[in-house]
Design a protein that fits this description.
By secondary structure, the protein is an alpha/beta fold. It has one domain: 5'-nuclease (Rossmann fold). It has 7 helices and 6 strands. Helix 5 packs across helix 6.
Length: about 150
Amino acid sequence: MRAALDTNILAYAEGVGDAPRCAAAIRLIAQLPAEIVLLPAQTLGELFRVLTAKAKREAGLAREAIMTWADSFEVADSSWTAFQAAMDLTIDHKLHIRDALIVAVAAENRCRILLSEDLQAGFTWRGVTVVNPFDAPSSPLLASLIGDSEINL
């Protein structure tokens, strides 16, 4: 089973947000087997914006963080097919185009889960289910991904 990470999970892991969520995101990512994690390139672009605009991180340091993420996990580019699907998601399901593109890239790359706090938990499209890792009780999909019925976030 493959899982894609949304920007908010990465931003929390970079220390942008409240301390409990930041710590939980770091624990979550540490529990995920690296070989199953996919980062849509869109998430890294958004993360760069969050780090430089919201967190006021110097652009060179933000770039270093982005490159570290890219070195750690597979990165999937946005294809024209994914962008077309994202437009359909925007029209049919009222998703913002940037969120829709992340869902479409996750589906195109055979992800089963998209870990996100921002998208509607439980939303499923083309086999990808949005899971909020901070929800309690935790999702059975997330538990099966980590291989543990008791998720330690």
